[in-house]
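Input chain follows. Return structure tokens only.
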Amino acid sequence: MKYRRLGTTGVKVSEISLGSWLTYGGYVENENAIKTIHKAYDLGINFFDTANVYRRGEAEKVVGIALREFPRESYVLATKVFWPMGEGVNDRGLSRKHVIEQANASLKRLGLDYVDLYYAHRFDPETPMEETLRAFDDLINQGKTLYVGVSEWTAAQIAEAIHIADKKLLDRIVVNQPVYNMFNRYIEKEVMPISEAHGVGQVVFSPLAQGVLTGKYKKGVAAPSGSRLADPDSKAFVERYLSEDNFDRVDKLQEVANDLNVSLAQLALAWVLRTDNVSSALIGASRPEQVEENVKAIDVELTEDVLNRIEDILTLK
């Protein structure tokens, strides 16, 4: 495994990290989920990601049980807060009340005294940013989280968060978690530049475009049994990538992968990791062998000629 700094902090995380969205706590039976997490750890993955909202806390419970076998200092664990966790008017968002209550609830489900990284799962327009950042700062001072970050915030929101933290002497956010893959590159225009300027790293999710960049989905062919496209709960996340143009691009990208003697998934992950601002690429896996294949991406070297060939494919109209 290879490791990178989380933003500009001193902590190092594996280039490939393992998440639990749409997988653990229900979709994948717990025994297999635990085996997959253990395989990831054995392969050198030290960065694990979950959230309170994933299966309403069930994913956190599974991740906590799986990681309990390992020394606490040997892994980096992230969870999140924002989405509704109940029907009450204050059971959502980034108010001090919700942030503090959910941090405590997450720690209880995980069976831990602290998490390494706590994310604002989305931006909350109804809560003053200073209120959220002060709540995060208090959690750091209490030792309940070591670092804080955001997910899917705009460049302007990230810049404002840095400005407020510096002005009020609060702990800064150190990482952003956006979607980023060959078919969704929106962060390149503004988010990456502003993040690089302020030492904020990217921990990207959906680097394989919900499985489309594995080549498993074929034009005019029924979705494989057990795949996300075949699951009503996750189908919509996959369908957004299933355009005629993307099917054509996948075919051409597969040719590039074949020429390099790697899988399409390994090519797509190596492409995401080509930029230093990406601290880690977050994968999902329902079976141990999927992790085993994906981690091989860290050894895939993409020359300038290959990158140019990929760029021509991705910009093809």
